[in-house]
Amino acid sequence: MSAVMKFNNKPDHSRYDVVVVGGGHNGLTCAAYLAKAGKSVLVLEKRPVVGGSAVSEEVFPGFTFTVCSYVVSLFRPHIMRDLELARHGLEITPLEASFSPLPDGDSLCRWGDAHRTRREIARFSAKDAEVYPEFSLAMSQLARFTKSIIDNPAPNPASLKPGELIQALRASQGLREANADQRFTYMKLLTMSAADFLDQWFESDVLKAPMSVSGIIGTFLGVRSPGTAYVLLHHYMGEIDGAMRAWGFAKGGTGGISNAIARSAQSCGAEIITEAPVSNVIIKNGKAVGVALENGDEIKADTVVSGMDPHRTYFGLVGEEHLDSELITQLGHYKFRGSSGKVNLAVDKLPEFSSRPGDGPHLYGDVAIAPSIQYLEKAYDQAKYGDFSARPYINMVIPTLLDPTMAPPGKHVISCFVQYAPYDIKEGASNWPQRREAFGDAVVDTLAEYIPGLKETILHRQVLTPWDLEQEYGLTEGNIFHGELSLEQLLYLRPAAGWAKYKTPVQDLWMCASGTHPGGGIMGASGELAAKAILRRKAA
């Protein structure tokens, strides 16, 4: 199916049960569940296409990029079933390899085949080869225990209300079923750094480095920063076709996910309008009664749902005059601190790594430029002092190997997630446009150390800095998760204590995006849980 979908250019009605502001994947998920429940729903999206940062676009003629996010792991399987996303065009292909080239010409590849992975790891450490299956099993078990947390609203541990106590018991069920060793491991995950946690299991830096980076994605922290071990677990919660710890690629890129959700929502009666930026929520007597568009149009609604991040929702759509001082203070402490960039390349031939020449199955997964813990910490050190990393961590995929329709015959697209690129560079965030190409050069130069001749194959290049992600995609400070996934910003504290149940202090205004529990990634969980909370409240 085409990555480009056409939507209405004006609403069919002047009043709706629900208006959703923002057509990101969570906003679309929320809209689909509400429309499925019989509500009249309108989604308003500022950009010409839906998807937010889960979007695919033909940036150059013939080349479709997964512009921002690029792989699938955390999307909740029950949402796929509930919304019949397969029937609406969603196809996900598992990534069966994780390849790590090394500067000395060697490499490590972890495969879907456990025996093959064991042989690879054994070349660097016989001990690690024996321990690796045990580690994977332990993390998968912990991920299963925590599924009840991410698939349900976050309980408030300070509340004695019966409903909150029931939610707390439900959320803790998995850990109560765990044995003592598993609970001890979970506590270490909550407090340790990703690198220190992995040190307790493994000895080979070649293995630990590419594993540790799962702990820093979406956070302005290093792999030795406390708390990053939990983020590592967060990325072990993926599930594709019933297989835990599975990463995949959606046909057509991540825009294929958003488009499938949009089709599902439309099939249930939801309306979607693009190029319809919202100026503000209309508030009367402390109650949201609709939205005002930037062109001056007003649309009435019984309920308004924001698919925007907490900063843009509260300080943009609502305004401080409608908020109490305590909430304003809490929101002022909420950390975004975008630290990631994206470089997308269109090339005229398949890249060839010096460590594993030629085409091969190692290219059909993700490629991690993370040769050592020291390399990653040095990259973080540069970012701490206001510069992008000269030799960054790069996670790369070649989508056209799995979906050739994304480029002309014989040509390919390369998608590179890059860390670190701090939003607040020392020259000031507004100076990112002047440094954008230098950042892109650093990424290409780093890749070229492993892919000889890469530069000569590049036909087109798209470079997205955190500033670009903020300006074009509405991500405050360029944070891909609508706020860091640090411990003080999770569960009942996301986005603020007392306001983690998707509702806001403004009556009939709700939030449904990644700045709410359970957080970032292409999960769909925030949109689903928000919709169900709204339906429960309306039924009460």
Question: Could you characterize what this model shows?
Answer:
This protein has 540 residues and is of the alpha/beta class. The protein has three domains: 15-53 and 258-335 and 483-539, FAD/NAD(P)-binding domain (3-Layer(bba) Sandwich); 96-246, no CATH class; 337-476, Alpha-Beta Complex (Polyamine Oxidase, Chain A, domain 2). It contains 17 helices and 20 strands. It has helices at residues 25-36, 77-82, 114-122, 126-150, 162-177, 180-191, 194-199, 205-212, 228-234, 255-267, 310-318, 325-333, 373-384, 432-448, 454-457, 466-473, 525-539, and strands spanning 15-21, 41-44, 56-60, 63-66, 92-94, 97-101, 107-111, 239-240, 243-244, 248-250, 271-273, 278-284, 287-293, 298-306, 340-347, 366-369, 393-397, 412-419, 458-464, 509-511. Strands 1, 2, 11, 12, 13, 14 and 20 form a seven-stranded mixed sheet that branches. Strands 7-6-16-17-18-15-19 form a seven-stranded mixed sheet, sandwiched between helices. The chain has a two-stranded antiparallel sheet with strand order 3-4. α6 (180-191) packs across α9 (228-234). It is globular. It starts with 14 loop residues before the first strand and ends with a helix. Mean pLDDT is 91; it is low at 240-245.
CATH topology annotation of the largest domain: FAD/NAD(P)-binding domain
Gyration radius over CA:
22 Å
Low-confidence stretches: 240-245
CATH architecture of the largest domain: 3-Layer(bba) Sandwich
How would you summarize the topology of this molecule?
Layout: E1 15-21, H1 25-36, E2 41-44, E3 56-60, E4 63-66, H2 77-82, E5 92-94, E6 97-101, E7 107-111, H3 114-122, H4 126-150, H5 162-177, H6 180-191, H7 194-199, H8 205-212, H9 228-234, E8 239-240, E9 243-244, E10 248-250, H10 255-267, E11 271-273, E12 278-284, E13 287-293, E14 298-306, H11 310-318, H12 325-333, E15 340-347, E16 366-369, H13 373-384, E17 393-397, E18 412-419, H14 432-448, H15 454-457, E19 458-464, H16 466-473, E20 509-511, H17 525-539
Parallel strand pairs: 1-2, 1-14, 2-11, 6-16, 14-20
Antiparallel strand pairs: 3-4, 5-10, 6-7, 8-9, 12-13, 13-14, 15-18, 15-19, 16-17, 17-18
Helix pairs in contact: 1-10, 1-17, 3-4, 4-5, 6-9
